[in-house]
Amino acid sequence: MFVLRTDGSFKFLNYWGNPTIMVQGEKNVNIKTVLKTSVAAAALMAVAAPAVVSPAQAELSNGNKNKLVMSGQIARSLVYQDNGQDASLFNVDGIDTATRLRWIASGQMTESVTVGGIIEMNMPRSNSTYSLGQRGTADTSTDAATWGMRKTEVTFAHKAAGKFYIGQGSAAGDGASTNSLGSWGPSMSAQGAGGAGSSAFVNSATNALTGITVGSATGQYDPGRIDRIRYDTPSFGGLKLSASLGANSQSGVGASYGGKFGGIQVSAGAFYQKSDGAAGNVDGTMGGSVAIKHDSGLSAHLGYTREDSRTGIIEGKEWHGGIGYAASLTNLGTTGFAVNYTRADDSTSIGDQGEILGLAVNQSISSVGTDVFLSYSRVSYDDTTATNYDDFSAIMAGTRLKF
């Protein structure tokens, strides 16, 4: 056996008998007793130690069998705008994405049916609306003082029969015209870089602000979110169909497809939505998009939306496209680059035209669910009047933390 000396050294003894540890100057201690004591102590430490739960797996319980997961994001941006006459820097909340909280509930109703629900709210935001003034006047910015309801719905999903929704959420075909597989983060959408806020174009001759805002001149016609009932079919080889019905017979249909062929990933969609009675001249909107991505990191997308007019007087049209590249250039996460172009015709009047050129780079920090981004956009506008409008530009730098 081994004997532990008081000086820390071991000595081997040819000893046969009960397994004991001989410690000089101390009483013999039985190995079995030591092992039992050690195991008990380890178990106690394991129970007493604080549990560490990943935020993505953190769950709350209210006493029934449903699970409740809480998540959200914090978005902040610095936006520098130049309307050709004046320039200013704004410290704002997110642009295309905002600071928000969500609660997601889920439960197993039967072996084949799951029930779910989501409450998602945009938080009150500082500088949620901002715009450039003109020389001699102040820039404006307005806080969102109230919570904004984004989603509140209950869902029932069957493995073979599809999924049923009731409540406020995406109408059928929402997102069908903005498919993209790029990695440019929150600084850019499929239509181009953000950062315009509610700013307006400047009359080149008078250097005065006009009534044409950057957003209205370059609008698109995606269905968005409404209070509705909705049904999605199961996926058939990557193809899924959906239909929804909202208030005032605001109905819509949509189709989406996702698949991969060799080294190329494909995502596509299309929609038609009939407007409600409050939409005035607009009878409905329609559109679609397709996006592809190669395993090398190269990607491209193309989309189109338009209005369907009741009177035929004015029908807005918009198309957009872009290319991107994503790669793991550092050990932080994916780095994405993108160039997007958007053109909108007849957005505010017959014969007008708005254009956006956007550039963006996004660095994902995957270990902490964070994006750091930088984008530049240049917007131009022309109409059939004699007015010339200065081009509008914006530089946006910011971050988004998901939790």
- Spatial order of the strands in the main sheet? 5-7-8-11-12-17-18-19-20-21-22-23-24-25-26-27
The pLDDT mean sits at 83
As for the CATH topology of the largest domain, it is Porin
Q: Would you state the CATH class of the largest domain?
A: Mainly Beta
| Share of helix, binned | under 10%
CATH architecture of the largest domain: Beta Barrel
Overall structural domain count? 2
Structural classification: mainly beta
- The N- to C-terminal Cα distance equals 56 Å
Global shape: globular
Number of strands: 27
Largest beta-sheet characterization? 16 strands, antiparallel, barrel
Which stretches are poorly predicted, pLDDT < 50 over at least 5 residues? Answer: 1-56
Name given to the CATH homologous superfamily of the largest domain: Porin
Work out the radius of gyration.
30 Å
Strand content: over 45%
Number of helices: 2
Order of helices and strands: EEEEHEEEEEEEEEEEEHEEEEEEEEEEE
Explained architecture:
The protein has helices at about 30-50, 215; strands spanning about 1-5, 10, 20-25, 30, 65-80, 85-95, 100-110, 115-120, 125-130, 140-145, 150-160, 160-170, 190, 190-195, 200, 210-215, 225-230, 240-245, 250-260, 265-275, 280-295, 300-310, 315-325, 335-345, 355-365, 370-380, 390-400. With about 400 residues, it is mainly β. It has 2 domains: about 1-50, no CATH class; about 75-100 and about 125-135 and about 170-400, Porin (Beta Barrel), CATH 2.40.160.10. The strands form 5 sheets. Strands 5-7-8-11-12-17-18-19-20-21-22-23-24-25-26-27 form a 16-stranded antiparallel β-barrel. It has a 4-stranded mixed beta sheet with strand order 2-1-3-4. Strands 9-10 form a two-stranded antiparallel ribbon.
